[in-house]
Amino acid sequence: MAAGTPVRTGTAIDLSGVSVRFTSKRSQTTALDDVSLRIAPGEFVTIVGPSGCGKSTLLKIVAGLVRPTSGDVSLMGRPVAGPQKDIGFVFQRAALLEWRGARANILLQAEMRGMDRRAAAQRADGLIEMTGLRGFEKALPHELSGGMQQRVALCRALLHSPPVLLMDEPFGALDALTRESMNAEMNRIWRDTGTTVVLVTHSIAEAVFLGTRVVVMSPRPGRILRTFDVDLPAHRDYAQVMSDARFDRLATELRGLLGSVAAH
């Protein structure tokens, strides 16, 4: 757990002995094999591993979009038996409706969930303020930069105040400077909301900068090789963290582990 992170009791996400096998007429593929992971409320857990190791599948299992072949999954103490409503999900692409402005795209979540209109509007305005989108409420997606589109998608995912936010490589398509800015923004949002976050990424720097823990997965079939605690303060300035010896040590260790895995 990062220094300065509030300690909370209970379990937000619990995977126990989870395996996933996809079967077709010609073959059977094991995507995940005996994965066990417990995440406490308020943690920011990042997941890294080779392409195709089942990272995205793991998120979909937590969301109830994929059922495990074996093992148990619970979310906020309740078994996951189908698609979960009490989560937010942010994908690599913002997937905004091109004919709706930023605020209208955010409020799409409220329409789909049948939320109270007034409460949803107030929540949307607060998120717009928090993410720096003030002044762009009516802007159409093509009028927004990639980073701003992802901010809209993030606001949409947070509109119903989910206790758990799942993020699947959300900043992978952004340029380097925008990605750094979004990482810093994500750290602030996590601290401000107290949401439990699980983020899949291919970037070691992103995993260490954002995470309170980093989970490293093996090539398919995906297994958890190791988990690393991130010894950095909860409040993270990008430039300071990049020059911190603790960041450098962990990033180097992760790079070495992933490199040795790839070599085999």
Automatic annotation (TrEMBL):
Keyword Transport: yes
GO molecular function terms attached to this record: ATP binding; ATP hydrolysis activity
ABC transporter domain residues: 15-244
Gene3D superfamilies tied to this protein: P-loop containing nucleotide triphosphate hydrolases
Keyword ATP-binding carried by entry: yes
Pfam families the UniProt entry points to: ABC_tran (PF00005)
Keywords: ATP-binding, Nucleotide-binding, Transport
Name used for this protein in its record: ABC transporter ATP-binding protein
Organism name: Micromonospora endolithica
PROSITE patterns xref list: ABC_TRANSPORTER_1 (PS00211), ABC_TRANSPORTER_2 (PS50893)
